[in-house]
Specification:
With 640 residues, the chain is of the alpha/beta class. It is 18% helix and 27% strand. It starts with 6 loop residues before the first helix and ends in a 27-residue tail after the last strand.
């Protein structure tokens, strides 16, 4: 049963669910998350002791003296306002500051009482927090778990530096920290560094009451053994915790680092692996080449590489279209300004985004748990994303990144009846028609080179089969994820096939009725395309091969769709049936998209919701799926 609820009502329902969840599970919703959930984007700044200082006689990153660095920063005219102004230009609501970074010299941009690595006398962090707060922005502090680059820029890389040889140069002062602690601690090692950084968490969270949280680059075992994050929760329940590339249950946010290799390349969300309503963020470089930090303007470095405007804007829109926060990394120079290539982009988007701001702020991604039009691949080469207003589900947007080759745009309507369609930038009103579940916008002859945005005003969803008598049964289920989750209208629950394929899902609609289509929202826990992420192979755990049967009594079955292939794509997927009268619909999944060499994904299915519609807005029919395709090929024969 699909419950038509306003987006705000859905959020309130999920809030109650999240707060009641047992501690072993991720806390999906908490009031401390509100400001980040209401954010669209953030600005990621890697800036520290090894930021290139523009000295042509020194190789990049050879600057090592902490006091000299601080003096150069101050005499350069650095001001936190420069960072805040840059964040405002890109319409970010928060800044993540990465100075205590493994490749930047492990400096702390605040006066610290704890010896062990570079610490400034000037409170750069405090000034940044204050300047950001004055403009309604938040600051999150980056913390690394990794001491392995203790030698970089100080020792030659070969032979491999020995972390236990404390006579060799290091960014750390193990002797000073050992004296402070009263026992020997080797900061070049993970246990020693874990103890050191553990102390820094407490210093920072007590020193800065307005600090928004910690952005943590993976986990150190010392932190876990000593219950660091439970103590953060107890002492600063207002602080957010974000982990890079890991889904840590106690944390608020999962951040996804620099996804590349997708088709199209701007479709960042196709590589995300965290399902809504988990708070998700994507961090990526501007420009796409070079380091995360400013390392000079030589060819190939971030300071000189061209910015791909379509890629950068497309990534932003892709994340908005998946309810994920877009954390854009820019390479601040020593004085807080940005290289000309990035400064020019910031100036551009400062005027580019306001005309479409209503479509990317205060919205959720369309085609998922909040409803909305179907995103992804459309007709004639068109591709893009959809959004839906948080507090008005009848106000929706279509973001066309790649325009169709012809003069019409066709988007699956997901049951919404359109009333009016306009260009958000120009106000131009478009003719359109609906039939067979497709919304066709006419006269699409021009558009924006990066993101053509249509405002679609709708009159609710039409033709959905509703009722408390709708039930689902399945041929297999994993413990805690049974068939009831398919029709409960709750996206915090899902069905799991327990790695059994073929798998059948049978919908009992409660009484005989016309069935125009079946719609499926699969859980977005895997990438849509085979790829590698930091050496880890990933693949799509989505439905590939399937067939559909119907029955009046649940005993005698008629095949209406033989073997067909469902695309490996995010968002709602449709199977058009056009059956005049039936009570039972049975979907049999015969394969998923993952390669058999990846047991983490192969033959695994997770589905949030499945429902049926008896008719389309404005009527019409749609052809049944074309049979065949890769989902209907013989299954691969295991090696050996």
């Amino acid at each position: 049963m699909l419950k038509r609820l306003a987006v705000c009502a859905v959020s309130l329902t999920l809030l109650a669910v999240g707060l009641a969840a047992p501690p072993a599970h991720a806390e999906l919703f908490n009031p401390r998350q509100t400001w980040l959930r209401n954010s669209t984007a953030g600005l990621f700044l890697h800036w520290g002791l090894r930021t290139n200082r523009g000295d042509p006689n020194k190789p990049p990153f050879l600057n090592t003296d902490c006091a000299a660095w601080e003096n150069e920063v101050t005499t350069s005219g650095w001001s936190a306002d420069r960072w805040v102004q840059a964040a405002q230009k890109v319409h970010a609501q928060y800044i993540v500051l990465a100075t205590f970074h493994s490749r930047l010299g492990y400096a702390r941009p605040w006066p610290s009482a704890i010896p062990g690595s570079c610490s400034t006398q000037r409170d750069f962090l405090g000034e940044t927090v204050k300047a950001a707060k004055a403009k309604g922005l938040h600051v999150i502090l980056y913390m690394t778990d990794d001491p392995k680059w203790f030698w970089e820029g100080l020792q030659p890389p070969t032979p491999a530096p020995d972390p236990n040889d404390l006579t060799k140069p290091s960014w750390f002062d193990s002797a000073a920290y050992s004296a402070y602690k009263g026992h020997d601690v080797n900061l070049n090692t993970r246990p020693g560094f874990g103890e050191y950084s553990y102390d820094l968490f407490f210093e920072a969270m007590h020193r800065y009451p307005d600090l928004g949280g910690f952005w943590i680059d993976n986990l150190n075992q010392y932190w876990l053994d000593n219950h660091l994050f439970e103590q953060v929760r107890a002492q600063r329940p207002d602080m957010l915790l974000s982990n890079n590339n890991e889904d840590t249950p106690l944390f608020d946010t999962v951040s996804n680092e620099q996804k590349t290799g997708m088709t199209p390349p701007y479709d960042y969300n196709s590589a995300l692996w965290t399902s809504m309503p988990r708070l998700t963020e994507s961090d990526y470089k501007l420009p796409n080449q070079g380091n995360w930090w400013y390392d000079g303007d030589a060819p190939g470095r971030a300071g000189s590489s061209p910015v791909d405007y379509k890629l950068a804007i497309g990534r932003l829109i892709s994340n908005v279209g998946a309810s994920s926060k877009a954390l854009e990394a820019e390479t601040s120079k020593l004085d807080g300004t940005f290289p000309p290539n990035q400064a020019a982009f910031n100036d551009f988007v400062n005027s580019y985004l306001p005309p479409i701001w209503e479509s990317i702020h205060g919205v959720e991604g369309g085609g998922y748990m909040f409803g909305g039009l179907k995103p992804g691949a459309w007709n004639d080469g068109a591709y893009g994303f959809t959004t839906i207003a948080k507090h008005d589900p009848d106000r929706q947007y279509i973001h066309v990144i790649d325009r169709p080759s012809g003069d019409t745009l066709q988007v699956r309507d997901n049951g919404y009846e359109a009333e009016r369609i306009t260009d958000v930038r120009t106000g131009h009103r478009f003719r359109f028609h609906q039939s067979g579940g497709t919304l066709t916008i006419e006269g699409v002859t021009t558009g924006d080179p990066y993101d053509t945005v249509f405002n679609v005003e709708t009159d609710g969803r039409q033709g959905l089969i509703r009722g408390h008598r709708i039930t689902a049964t399945t041929s297999s289920s994993a413990a805690g994820h049974d068939a009831s989750a398919l029709v409960d209208g709750d996206y915090t629950t899902w069905w799991d096939n327990d790695t059994v394929i073929p798998a059948t899902i049978t919908l009992d609609l409660g009484h005989p009725t016309k069935v125009a289509y079946v719609a499926v929202n699969q859980r977005e826990w895997s990438s849509t395309q085979p790829r590698r992420s930091f050496g880890h192979p990933e693949d799509s755990a989505r439905i590939q091969g399937y067939h559909v049967e119907v029955s009046a009594d649940g005993q005698a079955w008629t095949t209406v769709v033989g073997c067909a292939t469902m695309p490996s794509a995010r968002g709602v997927q449709f199977v058009d049936l056009n059956v005049d009268r039936t009570r039972f619909v049975r979907l049999t999944v015969t394969s998923n998209w993952s390669a058999p060499t990846l047991p983490e994904f192969f033959n695994k299915l997770k589905i949030d919701e499945i429902w049926a519609g008896r008719s389309y807005p404005e009527g019409g029919t749609a052809p049944r799926p074309v049979e065949g395709g890769p989902g209907c090929a013989p299954p691969p024969v295991p090696a050996g």
